[in-house]
Amino acid sequence: MNAQFNDTHNGFQYYPTPIDLATRVWKKLNDRHPSRVLEPSAGKGHLLKGMLNPRYDYRKDYFSNIDCCEIDVRHHADLRDLGVKIVGHDFLAMESGACYSAIVGNPPFHNGEKHVLKAWDLLWDGEVVMIVNAETVRNPLNAERRRLVSLIEEYGDVEYVQGAFEVEDAERKTPVDIAIVHLVKRAEVGSFVTMDLLRDMTRDTVDGEQLGSGYSVPHQLALPVSEIENRVSIFNAAVTSARDAIYAQAQASAYAGMLGDSMGARASGTADRDHAPTADYVRRALGSAYGDLKERGWASIVRSADVTSRLSSEALKRVEAEFKLISQLEFTVKNIYSFLIGVCEQQGRIQIDMLCDIFDRITRYHSDNTAYYRGWRSNDKHYRSIGRRIRYTRFVIPGFAVGRGARSPSWEMEQLLADFDKGFALLSGDAAPEVSLVSACNAHWAELKYGARIESSYFDLRFYPGIGTLHFFPRDKQLIDRLNRAVGRQRGWLPAENLKIESAGFWEQFDKAEKLDKEIRRAVAKRYRGCSDEPLRTLGNASWDGYERACAQVDEALQEVHEAHDIQVDFRVASEARKEGQLQAQTQAQTQLPLLIAA
Questions:
Q1: How many Å is the Cα radius of gyration of the chain?
Q2: Alpha carbon distance 450, 464 (integer Å)
Q3: What is the rounded average pLDDT of the residues 36-55?
Q4: Exposure string over 379-407, b if 16+ CB within 10 A, otherwise e
Q5: Which band of pLDDT confidence, cut at 50, 70 and 90, is reported for residue 227?
Q6: CA distances from 378 to 255, 269, 511, 527, 573 (A)
Q7: Measuring CA to CA, how many Å separate 164 from each of 86, 160, 168, 171, 175?
């Protein structure tokens, strides 16, 4: 594993920046307080820690103006702990960078010139400081290196450092000499106003109507077939339009400033002269517009049918909670596909999480929805886990009180029913239920409000609006059993499918959990003074005080009832039981051998 890890890092040319070199790099910046910085190959953040005047021991808010790219996803957690925003994986694939005032990095040595040139091309107005192999500058053997040398000669400087990665605190040492390249790029802000104002000195006959005659409402673009490419094309068109609008506004302000104050302003003693926009103003405006459009683009993907159709409402909430991280990535076809592939690759985890969400929603509020059994796994506290399973016959979910005058189900009710439709369709192997709970509820809402029992593919449903309870009657016990087993295995109450329990008693107590439920509850009540179901309600909340005591009490009650019904539960898997049997036989043979000799 370590060899594989090291090979991967060698492939990425991972050489963390020693702190002295990092500090030296940041001191190269003329602007000691850049408004927004991009680190294009951030690693674990070693270079970032060399920033000048670190406050409060690298508090997260110190790096709040830092964006970064990092191709090795194993480093992303370290970067997020620092408080930086990860906006992409492959810096060389980035398409927008006009919002940055500095790009500072330690790129891979084998293609450092590509990273420096990419940074230069992305910047609109700002500085580039990069660590590259000294030979990259000393021996310009290709066109890219020659272009880099030309840029250094015209726009910057270079400092050579020997032994920078051989110091004591270097995480990975190398004898390579390095060059710190510093480039300064200044936008031609004045170019906004360089046109010849005297070019057409004819009388102005253009009115507002004529000025607006060239504008029409944008039509839907003629876009590629792919929906993802459509969205990226629309996004790029929006970015271009926003950039043009910002440039145009900057030009308009500059020209207005040249004209001076209006007569009204001069007469009143006030000044309304517009000033020529600064590069920082334009950069901030571009960054704000770009960030807003990028968030809109990612929101459209996250909420698209292709994603939401695979997620329950709780799973979707988890995705939306992580949306801030997702929306920091560039809105490109590659990144969108990577996100969607990630959703697909995690389908197994997403599906089991969805089933666990459904299970918890059913068992959370009503202990009567649940039957109990002794779980297969014990924990470090040496008490056995208590397994729970949903009843086959009926379960009740509260919290939906409405008046008789309500014309339709509440949004919360529809969300719950939609989650059940998705989850039980998954358990049934269907793409979707033939008659969904949502459609049945809406089609028969009037009857449902007055106590009618309606049918859907997987459940009969009855609603009591006064107390707000939904009563579900499963139509197929096998689906409930599949849910119980899937969640039981996920939480360690049941053994994995590839493990065989030696004793039939374990599965007997699991199968009879609902049948023995009344006896089990009486046995629990004997062990608890107070509300008889308090230990059972506590089982669903591991963080509650008394959870361990509740597990022990319920386990004792289960053992008592099982013994009364002659159910002997053996928690060993078959291989363990056979091994123990072989050891017992071997011990018995060794004990008998001296007796045989004596005979």
A1: 34
A2: 8
A3: 81
A4: eeeebbbbbbbbbbeebbbeebebeeeee
A5: confident
A6: 77, 84, 20, 21, 14
A7: 27, 10, 10, 12, 8
Q: Quick one: which H or E segment has residue 540?
A: none
pLDDT in tens, 73-126: 888 888 888 888 888 888 998 877 877 889 999 999 888 999 999 999 888 888
Cα 535 to Cα 367: distance, rounded to the nearest angstrom: 10
Burial class (CB in 10 A: 0-12, 13-18, 19+), 493: buried
pLDDT of residue 55: 39
- Residues 330-358, mean pLDDT to the nearest whole number: 81
Beta strands in 189-250 (DSSP E): none
Beta bridge partners of 372: 388
Tens of pLDDT, residue by residue over 532-555, are 457 777 776 766 777 788 888 888
Question: Which neighbouring-strand residues pair with 102?
Answer: 37, 127
The one-character DSSP state at 431 is S
* Nearest by Cα to 129 from 95, 81, 180, 177: 180
Domain with CATH 3.40.50.150 in the chain: 2-186
DSSP code for 18: P
- DSSP label at residue 573: B
Neighbours of 444 (CB within 10 A): 17
Question: For residue 212, what pLDDT band results from cuts at 50, 70 and 90?
Answer: very low
Class of domain 2-186: alpha beta
Give percent of the chain above pLDDT 90: 32
